[in-house]
Specification:
The protein has three helices and six strands. With 167 residues, the chain is an alpha+beta fold. The protein has one domain (24-166): Roll (Thiol Ester Dehydrase, Chain A). Strands 1-2-4-5-6-3 form a six-stranded antiparallel β-sheet.
């Protein structure tokens, strides 16, 4: 477990300048994920410390469609939840000027619901809101939409750690 006395918490870190939208290169500068596990393509909106809206373009070229399911490809629900967590991680890491030295690690998933299948050609609109913050832990609520219809939702908790300690 990280010693929080040696690093600043999310509540103590000074905010970086405000951002409105991020392209894939800027997202990759925030998150450590890479193909085939980077599950957000663009960030449309950021309200620092509160909310983020991201997009995931779902294509037939996604490697998971090979086996999930042959003849009827559906994006696995767990990957939709991962996309929610990645968007939340981008929101939280964008608050740090030294974000390259930080990681947001998944701590829990609660109240996950999968309402409609997500298929190749769909565009996921992922909206994540901060629900609670405590020291280095943050609970967020996320919803994923396709064409305005809610397809999935979940609450995720993430923990801020120093990247060196995690490695």
């Amino acid at each position: 477990m990280e010693d929080t006395t040696q690093s600043q918490t999310l509540l103590e870190q000074p905010a970086a300048p405000a951002i409105t939208a991020l392209d894939i290169d800027q997202i990759m500068s925030l998150l450590p994920h890479r193909y085939p596990f980077l599950l957000i393509d663009r960030i449309l909106e950021v309200v620092r410390g509160q909310r983020i809206v991201a997009l995931k373009n779902v294509t037939i070229n996604e490697p998971f469609f090979t086996g999930h399911f042959p003849g009827y490809p559906i994006m696995p629900g767990v990957l939709i939840v991962e996309a929610i967590a990645q968007a939340g991680g981008a929101l939280l890491l964008s608050e740090f000027t030294d974000h390259a030295s930080k990681l947001m690690l998944f701590a829990s998933i609660d109240n996950a619901r999968f309402r409609k299948p997500v298929r190749p050609g769909d565009q996921l609109r992922i909206e994540v809101t901060v629900l609670k913050r405590r020291s280095t832990l943050v609970k967020m609520g996320g919803k994923a939409y396709v064409d305005g219809a809610l397809v999935s939702e979940a609450e995720v908790m993430c923990q801020l750690v120093n990247r060196q300690a995690a490695e």
